Amino acid sequence: MDINELLRGVECTCGNTHTCGIRYVYIEPDAIAHLKEICEPFAHILIVADENTFAAAGRQTLDALKTKQVREVIFDGKEILVPNENAIEKVTSNLAHTDLIVGIGSGVIQDLCKYVSFASKIPYLVVASAPSMDGYASSGAAMITDGMKVTYPAGLPLAIVADTDVLRNAPMEMIVAGYGDIIGKFSALNDWKLSKCVMDEYFCDYIFDLTCEQIKKTLALADGILRRDETSVRTLMEALVTVGILMSFAGSSRPASGSEHHLSHFFEITGILDGTYYFPHGIDVAYSTYVTAKLREYILAHGCKNSRFRLSDDRYRTVMRELYTSVADGCIALQQKVGNYDTDRTEIYRQKEAEIKRILAEMPASDEIARMLSTVGLDMDKFYAQYGNKHIRDAVLYAKDLKDRYTVLWLYYDLFGGETPLS
Question: Rounded to two decimals, what is the model's pTM?
Answer without folding.
Answer: 0.92
